[in-house]
Amino acid sequence: MSIKFSQAIDFINKAQKSDERQNFREAIVLYESGVRHLLDALEHEIKGETAREAITQKCLLYRERAEELRQNIGESESGRIAQTTV
């Protein structure tokens, strides 16, 4: 396993744990860091087409989750209750 890919997995795992603990701000930062590392690994280290497609799909999933959390935080800060599911 490549260094960038390994780091990306660590960030994503930490993001998911923060997400589960409802520490959403931290989860957003970790998801975004994980995606950046995945994209870097995709560009420089991942060669197989199947692996590249799977990583691309995961990047989209993690970006969507970060955006969903960002929107929920905005709703809670404006006085509304944010409902979040993982």
How would you sum up this structure, described in words?
The protein is elongated, with a radius of gyration of 14 Å. By secondary structure, it is mainly alpha-helical. It has helices at residues 3-20, 24-44, 49-77. Helix 1 (3-20) runs antiparallel to helix 2 and helix 2 (24-44) runs antiparallel to helix 3 (49-77). Mean pLDDT is 87; it is low at 79-86.
Beta-strand proportion: under 5%
Largest sheet: none
Point out poorly predicted stretches.
79-86
- Average pLDDT rating: 87
Number of strands: 0
Order of helices and strands: HHH
* 3D shape: elongated
Helical content stands at over 70%
Secondary-structure content class: mainly alpha
Termini, distance in Å?
27 Å
CA-atom Rg in angstroms: 14 Å
Helices, by number, come to 3
Write the layout of secondary structure elements.
Elements: H1 3-20, H2 24-44, H3 49-77
Features:
0% strand, 86 residues, disordered C terminus, 79% helix, single chain, elongated, mainly alpha
